[in-house]
Amino acid sequence: METQKNALILTDNSGVTRDLAGLLAAEMRGITVQVLTASNFTGSDILPADYCFFGCAEPHPPEFAYLEELLAHINLAGRPCGVFSPGSAEALRYLTDLTGPSELALNPESLLGNAKLQQWVAGILNQK
């Protein structure tokens, strides 16, 4: 019997980022998906996540301060992760750097906008 997989999608407070997160969640059929803004995130939200997705419209959103601190001090080695932004390559670089210390298994491709969204999500879900 296979256990239910869980995904966490964490975004900044930008409406366009939250909209993109909704599109991502819709692609994750058969997976329990929790979509949160970083201002509503607690460290225990990441523990049951088999997959993590982080998105922001601009680099260093203030509401990501707690996430930055947490990922600097927690080991999530091997958990598949994807980073996305509605339109900022700088935000993608920031998110890529953010995930490094936690040893998340970051997908080598990040998602900018919603081009190839379905393929991108499938690639991350198939990592595990």
Give structural notes.
With 128 residues, the protein is of the alpha/beta class. It contains four helices and six strands, in the order E-H-E-E-H-E-H-E-E-H. The radius of gyration is 13 Å and the shape is globular. It starts with 5 loop residues before the first strand and ends with a helix. 37% of the residues are buried. The mean pLDDT is 95.
Anisotropy-based shape: globular
Q: The biggest beta sheet, please?
A: 6 strands, parallel
User: How would you describe the oligomerization state of the chains in this entry?
Assistant: single chain
Mean pLDDT: 95
What is the overall number of helices?
4
Low-pLDDT runs? none
- Gyration radius, rounded: 13 Å
User: Structural class of the helix and strand makeup?
Assistant: alpha/beta
Total beta-strand segments: 6
Give the percentage of residues in beta strands: 15-25%
Fold topology:
Blueprint: E1 6-11, H1 15-26, E2 32-37, E3 51-55, H2 65-72, E4 80-85, H3 89-99, E5 105-106, E6 111-112, H4 117-125
Parallel strand pairs: 1-2, 1-3, 3-4, 4-5, 4-6
